[in-house]
Every structure is written in structure tokens, then in C-alpha cells.
Design brief:
The complex is a heterodimer of chains A (393) and B (333). With 393 residues, chain A is α/β, with parallel strands linked by helices. Chain A contains eleven helices and 15 strands. In chain A, the strands form three sheets. Chain A has a seven-stranded mixed sheet with strand order 7-6-8-9-10-14-15, sandwiched between helices. In chain A, strands 2-1-3-4-5 form a five-stranded parallel sheet, with helices on both faces. In chain A, α3 runs parallel beside α4 and α10 crosses α11. The chains are: A alpha/beta (393), B mainly alpha (333).
């Protein structure tokens, strides 16, 4: 009897936990998603452009997916308000290759979409890009940085696949260029050897800084669970460097920066877009810089309007994912408008030649369908982040 | 008996080995100083000391419990984590100072560890030792994953706000922070208290008796269960304090933070001789130094620091399983 009651109770608890975990975060945005297909009265020529959106809406990468979707939805609504007839269908790619494939297959074969925005993780974008290329569906991924997403195995570019974000090598080069601009000649680079993204940034920054005539005096790896950086930082102090590259994510950077302060090291800290988080300890990073996809303090109208509208709609600051999602959707819409037809081959050609001016900068595509744009450098001063300048490699 | 004549030459050989070892160490230190300068070397030594003192507090808990019940309490490192978290909430939510925060962490850990002992180990007191060990691993995983749930501590990294400002002194080119001073002072104070309890009180006498021979101790009228509970409590108190100190030194906490320091402290306890209090401290200081010196002087040292730590464990098991200060176990028939 008591055993049964315990079981019922525990099942109830599990259900309650599940509800409380997923409820508030997804509900409002999912509402938007389902509302969208209802559509408005066809305007203009009456063609309805069907766009599939694949983002992770559950699992580890859920918050990235929701941010991306928010950005895309804003762009879609703006287009609709201008009378552009677009129908958006959302699928959960779960940041997983299999789920991404399923989502893309459904969108392409059942829903007959001609355009796909997504996915978020490179692991889901890759299989989707193969399907998109086979079926001549134009795909643009907002944040996937794996080079293989837009390039076939034989090295040729996928004609129908594009991305809105810059790649890891680019950020490494930007970090090195920034250091040179700041007059640094001697640098230390500390990186997590078990993270491909961090390692990539570190290696490209090193190569580029050395090519520019600088000296990388300390190039030290650490592992994911390290917490004690005292010995590495002794080396940094001993080398007396001008700048320290910390290409890791904000939580590790917080920890390292704390210990840098304690060692009495005053070198300027420089990081990548992994720093972009409200959890970054700005007091510790005082005087530091990091490269990012955009800066909310960027004075251009397009940025300011986007930030303002996003805040009123979602009640939070847009992060990089939201911004890239917005720009990706805008690029797609502009390419369709320029083509003026639902013929995907023509749209892909127009997109390859696009000149788009968006929140994350002025974008055109190189021959591998990676965007050519500048990185926004954000400076941390007075406990605030502020827009410093754009840097091209 | 018949080999008495061998003793003197053996002793001489032993002393020669010791002398050779010391020479090697002195020469090694000399070379290391030459390598990058004295300041760099002594700074590394100091950083190693700081790490070692934190390990010591954790290792003492392992070693004491092992000494009494012959159980490696794998949940110990998670008790350490809970100590760090409870002080985090006391400091960030209620603005407590460092001393009350440490005391709170110790109390919370004592309660938790005694509860663990009652629920997970006591029913297995007469079961084979491996059963209790598996139970300990289970408790360890339970604590890690349960506390990672959203309504407990959550799975995020939290930045630990120190309840005081960091002051860095420059002494002869060495940067010494008040954090190092606090860690060393708290550890030494707790160690003194521990030694007092063990060597000068009746309870301590009972603990020593239990660790020597539990059955005989019970026959002498010692309440073994009470002593075991007490041992778990004292070990947990030390782990709680260690949690706070570790979080102060490396100010970021999450529910899996205990694993690595826990393993290193365990290695330290084995290195010093598990079951031996002085050995745990000595082993911990050595572990701290080994780690920091590896990173400071070995090429690619920062990548292999964990490797070196576990290598130490393997070497100890191969060369001297009883550790530096451990007594060889006499199998009782």
C-alpha cells in the first residue's frame, strides 16, 4: 500500500519536474511558431514562400535554439508586416545528426519547403546541408562554424548552402590583429586542449600573431577540469607579456582572470565570442577586449532598432544566436526578393552575390559561402561592455 | 635473531640511501633554481604549498575513516562540494563572514556525512568490504547528480564571491596573497585541534583503540558505533572547511567540483600511508608540490599534471603500497 503510494508520488514528482523544466521557457516562443503557419492573406503575386526552421528546442543546446528562433521570428514578422508572404515551419533538431536528418527529411518531402534556416549545432547542420544540396533547397545556417557545412567532401562548395557566422580561424586572426593594434609585441595564450573551438582559436591567433612579427612567449594548454592556474600564470608573469589571449568560454575565463589578478599580472586580456555572456565577471576583465558577432552598442540604426524591438518583444537582450538568426533570415528574404521567384537555383545565385547590410555587419559571401564581414570588438571598461570598433583581419 | 650481525651494515646502507636521496633532491632544487631563477622556483613552491594544504584537509577525512572502518569513503569528495555550496549561499545570500561560513559548512557536512554513514554504510557493517565500497561510489554519484538538479544547487558554474578583499603582498619578489595565509592558518588550526582530539582526549583514545583492533576495543567497553559516527563527523567537518578554502582559492563551484580534488587527496592519503594522520598531511603537501612543479618545469606540464598525479598512485602501489609513513599491515588470523 505504502509502496504504491510512494510510486504514485514519485511519478507525480517526475511529471512536475518535467513540466516545471520545460514549461515557461518554450511555451511563448512555441506559440509564435504555431501561430505563424496560420499566415495572413496572400499579398502581391500570391506566392507563399515556405521556409523550414531547424533548431534544437530540447536538450543541452536548447537555449541556443530558442535564441536563434527568436531572432528568425523577428525577421519573419518584419517581412510579413511589409507584405512579404512567408510561411515558417519549425522542427526540433535536438543538436543531433539523426534528429536533424529527420527534421530536414520531413520538411523537404512532406512540407515541401524550398528554404531551410538552420541548424544550430554543426553536428545537425552537416546532414541537413547534404539533404538540402541534393534536393536543391536553399539552406542558411546562422551559427554553425564547421567548415564542412558549406563544402562538399570533394572540396567543392555546396551550391545551395550558406552560413551567417564567421569561422574560428577568422576570430583567431581578429584577436591577433587587435593585439597588434594595441601595440602588443609579446603575448601569452592559454587554452583548453580538450575543446576544438578553443584550441582552434588559440592556434590561429598564435600563427597570425607570429606572422605579424609578435612573439608568443607562453603557449600553454590546460584541461577541462583544471581549476588551479597558479603555475601557468607564474610563467606568464615571468615572461612579462603585453597581452593574454583567453579564447575559452566565460566561466573558465572568469576563473583564470581571478587568478591573473592575484598574480599581479596587468597584461590586457583578449578573448573571443565565448566571452559573450551576462555571467562574464566584468570587474575582473576590466580593460579587456573580445571579438563578437555584433555589439548592442553599435550606433548604426539597423542595430539599435533590432535591439529595441527584440527587447520589447522578448524582454531580454539579444545574444549572438538571436542576432545571427535574424541576419540569416533577412539574408534569405532579401535573396528571395531579389530573385523575385520561388526558383531555388536562382535564389541561391542571388544569395551568393548578395550585398546585405545587417546587424552583424555588412555581409557578402566568399566562394565557399562563408560571410565576408568584420568582427565587432567589445571593450570592457568601468564594469560595462562597450562597442570599441570593427576589425577586419 | 641469528641475523643480528646484519643490522649495523643494513642501517649504514639505509643511511647511505637517505643521504643519496637528499643529495639528489638538493641538486634537483639547485638545477630548478638555475633554470628560471629563485623567485620563479619559490613562487611555484608557495603555490604548491597552498594547494597541498587544501588537499590535506580532504585527505585527513579519507585517512581517518579508512583507519577506523577500512572503507574508502568515495562520497567524501562530494561532502566537500556540499561544504563549498553551503558556504556560498551563506556568503552571497546572507552576507556572512569567512569564519561563520566555514563553521556552517562544517556543521552541514557533519550532518550530511553522519546521515550517509547511517543510511549507506551502517547496514553494511558486516558485509564484505567491497559492498560498502560500491555503496560509497553509489552515494558519491547520487550526491553529484542529485545536487545538480535545478531545485537543489543546479548544474551551472557559480562564481564564488569571497567574503573579503584579496590582498597581495610582495615579499622578496614573491607574491603572497591573504588567501594563502588564510588557507595555511585555517588548516594548521584544524590540524592542531584534530591532533589534540586524537591524542589528548578520551574519545581520541577510543578512536585510536578502535583503529588498532575494533573487536578488542568493543570488549573493553568502547561503543564502536559511536566512535565510527564520530569519525565520519570529524572527517566531514574537515572536508567542509576544505570546501570553503578550495572555493576561496579557486573561486568557481559546481556540483562536480569535488571529483578531481577528491581523487588527488585520496592519492595523497595513499602516498603518505593511508590510515596515518601525519602521512596524510605529508602526502598532501607532496602532491601539491608535485602538481605545481610539474606544470612549472616540465614541458607540456599543464597537460600532464593529472597524469603525473595518477602515476604517483601507481608508483606508490608498486613500490611501497603502505605509503611513506604507513605501517605494514599485519594480517590477523
Amino acid at each position: 500500500m505504502s509502496k504504491k503510494r510512494f510510486m504514485v508520488l514519485s511519478i507525480l514528482m517526475v511529471v512536475a519536474m518535467l513540466l516545471s523544466a520545460c514549461g515557461p521557457a518554450v511555451a511563448p516562443t512555441a506559440g509564435d511558431a504555431t501561430k505563424a503557419p496560420g499566415g495572413e492573406a496572400p499579398a502581391g503575386d500570391g506566392t507563399v514562400y515556405k521556409v523550414g526552421l531547424i533548431v534544437p528546442l530540447s536538450g543541452d543546446a536548447k537555449t541556443f535554439g530558442i535564441s536563434t528562433m527568436n531572432g528568425v521570428m523577428m525577421a519573419v514578422e518584419e517581412a510579413k508586416a511589409e507584405g512579404f508572404n512567408i510561411d515558417i515551419l519549425v522542427e526540433d533538431g535536438k543538436c543531433d545528426a539523426q534528429e536533424g536528418t529527420n527534421a530536414a527529411t520531413k520538411l523537404i518531402t512532406q512540407d515541401k519547403v524550398h528554404y531551410i534556416i538552420g541548424a544550430v549545432c554543426s553536428s545537425e547542420s552537416l546532414p541537413v546541408s547534404v539533404l538540402a544540396e541534393q534536393n536543391k533547397v536553399v539552406q542558411i545556417t546562422p551559427p554553425s562554424t564547421n567548415p564542412a557545412v558549406t563544402v562538399n567532401e570533394d572540396g567543392t562548395v555546396k551550391q545551395y548552402v550558406f552560413r551567417a557566422c564567421f569561422l574560428d580561424p577568422f576570430q583567431g586572426v581578429v584577436m591577433a590583429a587587435l593585439a597588434k593594434e594595441l601595440g602588443a609585441t609579446k603575448a601569452a595564450i592559454l587554452y583548453d586542449v580538450s575543446n576544438d573551438y578553443v584550441k582552434g582559436l588559440a592556434e590561429y591567433a598564435k600563427e597570425s600573431f607570429e606572422q605579424g612579427g609578435g612573439e608568443v612567449a607562453v603557449f600553454e594548454a590546460y584541461t577541462k577540469n583544471d581549476t588551479d592556474f597558479s603555475a601557468i600564470l607564474s610563467k606568464v608573469a615571468d615572461a612579462n607579456v603585453d597581452v593574454i589571449f583567453l579564447p575559452d568560454y566565460y566561466n573558465k575565463v572568469n576563473l583564470i582572470a581571478q587568478q591573473i589578478k592575484e598574480k599581479g599580472i596587468t597584461a590586457t586580456m583578449i578573448g573571443g565570442d565565448g566571452w559573450d555572456s551576462s555571467d562574464l565577471e566584468l570587474d575582473l576583465m576590466e580593460g579587456g577586449y573580445f571579438s563578437n558577432h555584433y555589439s548592442p552598442q553599435d550606433p548604426r540604426d539597423v542595430v539599435q532598432n533590432f535591439v529595441k524591438n527584440y527587447q520589447t518583444k522578448y524582454n531580454s537582450m539579444p545574444d549572438s544566436f538571436a542576432t545571427l538568426g535574424y541576419d540569416a533570415a533577412k539574408i534569405l528574404i532579401q535573396a528571395i526578393q531579389e530573385a523575385g521567384t520561388d526558383d531555388t537555383t536562382l535564389v541561391a545565385q542571388k544569395m551568393a552575390a548578395i550585398q546585405y547590410s545587417g546587424v552583424t555587419g555588412d555581409i557578402s559571401f566568399d566562394e565557399q559561402h562563408n560571410p565576408i564581414k568584420k568582427a565587432a570588438i567589445i571593450k570592457i571598461s568601468g564594469g560595462q561592455t562597450e562597442f570599441f570598433k570593427f576589425v577586419a583581419p | 635473531m641469528r641475523l643480528t650481525w646484519l643490522r649495523t651494515p643494513l642501517r649504514i646502507i639505509a643511511w647511505m640511501v637517505y643521504a643519496a636521496l637528499s643529495l639528489v633532491i638538493v641538486y634537483g632544487v639547485y638545477r630548478l633554481i638555475q633554470f628560471k631563477g629563485a623567485t620563479y622556483f619559490f613562487q611555484a613552491l608557495l603555490d604548491g604549498l597552498r594547494l597541498g594544504f587544501v588537499y590535506a584537509l580532504i585527505a585527513l577525512g579519507y585517512t581517518m575513516v579508512y583507519g577506523i572502518v577500512r572503507l574508502i569513503n568515495f562520497a567524501h569528495c562530494d561532502v566537500f562540494m556540499v561544504g563549498a555550496f553551503s558556504s556560498y549561499y551563506a556568503i552571497t545570500s546572507y552576507g556572512w563572514g569567512i569564519v561563520p561560513a566555514i563553521i556552517l559548512a562544517m556543521v552541514v557536512c557533519i550532518v550530511l556525512n553522519i546521515a550517509i554513514e547511517r543510511m549507506a554504510y551502517k547496514p553494511l557493517r558486516n558485509a564484505p568490504r567491497i559492498t560498502a565500497l560500491i555503496s560509497a561510489i553509489g552515494v558519491s554519484f547520487f550526491l553529484e547528480y542529485f545536487t545538480a538538479l535545478r531545485f537543489v544547487f543546479g548544474a551551472d558554474f557559480l562564481t564564488y564571491k569571497r567574503p573579503f578583499d584579496v590582498v597581495v603582498w610582495n615579499v622578496l619578489g614573491l607574491s603572497i596573497s591573504n588567501i594563502t595565509v588564510i588557507i595555511v592558518a585555517v588548516t594548521l588550526a584544524l590540524l592542531a585541534l584534530l591532533l589534540y582530539i586524537i591524542n589528548r582526549t578520551k574519545v581520541g583514545k577510543a578512536m585510536r583503540a578502535t583503529s588498532q583492533d575494533a573487536t578488542a576495543a568493543r570488549l573493553m567497553g568502547i561503543d564502536i558505533d559511536r566512535i565510527i559516527t564520530l569519525t565520519f563527523g570529524i572527517g566531514a567537518a574537515l572536508a567542509g572547511a576544505a570546501g570553503v578554502l578550495y572555493a576561496i582559492a579557486f573561486p568557481q563551484i559546481w556540483t562536480f567540483m569535488g571529483i578531481m580534488p577528491g581523487l588527488k587527496a585520496f592519492i595523497a592519503a595513499v602516498l603518505g600511508g593511508i590510515g596515518n594522520i601525519a602521512g596524510a598531511v605529508l602526502g598532501s603537501l607532496l602532491m601539491g608540490e608535485i602538481e605545481v612543479l610539474t606544470v612549472s618545469f616540465v614541458p607540456f606540464g599543464s597537460r600532464i599534471r593529472d597524469l603525473v598525479a595518477f602515476l604517483v598512485l601507481i608508483i606508490v602501489f608498486l613500490v611501497k603500497p603502505t605509503g611513506i609513513l604507513g605501517e605494514p599491515q599485519v594480517e590477523k588470523v
